[in-house]
Amino acid sequence: xxxxxxxxLTIAGSDSGGGxxxxxxxxxxxxxxxHGMTAVTAVTVQNSLGVQGFSEIPVDVVTAQIRAxxxxxxxxxxxxxxxxxxxxxxAVGKTLDEVHIGRNGRIPFVVxxxxxxxxxxxxxxxxxxxxxxTELFPRATLVTPNLDEVRLLTGVAVTDTGSQRAAADALLExxxxxxxxxxxxxxxxxxxxxxxxxxERYVELAGPRYDTEHTHGGGDTLASAITAALAKGxxxxxxxxxxxxxxxxxxxxxxxxxxxxxxxxxxxxxxxDNA
Length: 275
Ligand code: PLP
Hints:
This protein is 39% helix and 20% strand. It has 275 residues and is α/β, with parallel strands linked by helices. The protein is globular and about 45 Å long. 50% of the residues are buried. The site of pyridoxal-5'-phosphate (PLP) has 17 residues, from strand 1 and helix 7.
């Protein structure tokens, strides 16, 4: 390839099992045709059975990674995943302003407010939730919480599409331009219905619910696919629709690995391109 592809930056944690975190983000960026770059925030020790622990990266090393790639290679869109501590979140917020990422600059910025793994293992020190609200949400082009994260961040318990709309409004009060309230964990619903809103438009995105327990890394993969589409210059509603189509295929083709929860898979995209 001689043409420089668009670039996307993930500010997130490492998953030693390769299913979630920066590993999921990088392979999604690759599958979506953008060059992926990383600012690693923490190293988790985990496998298909859960997270056994994590160690955060020193704050100045996190911010130096962001500055290094932004200054030289350029960032067309960025996302955050696991940020581990309030100190990292505060420093990331300031650094994003310096390099013009987020609403204070011009570069699209997606916040996936990762709080815990699907096994319930914490990925965020407790005091850090408030920093996500105050430092990241006002800078975000789009935030992509699941229902547990919605409850932690706003106190709203989503039980149906009505309360999903109330949750979107409560999240928008925190300052992001768009919110995507993911309904995948609303198990009573035979479809997966996500709600996208900027306070004026409320768009329901309904998709199939697949019968698989292997959904590790699903949230990261969706947020990364959306970020890749934003890096290519697509408007938020188009980027979210493209991301949702992408994650649906990844969940449909998720595979078992280890004794616990296997990862969602972007392999289908590669085999399609090679066919
Ligand atoms: N590990 C890391 C580093 C993550 O970023 C995430 C999710 O964002 C997880 C684990 C949890 O993934 P899951 O919710 O699929 O267990």
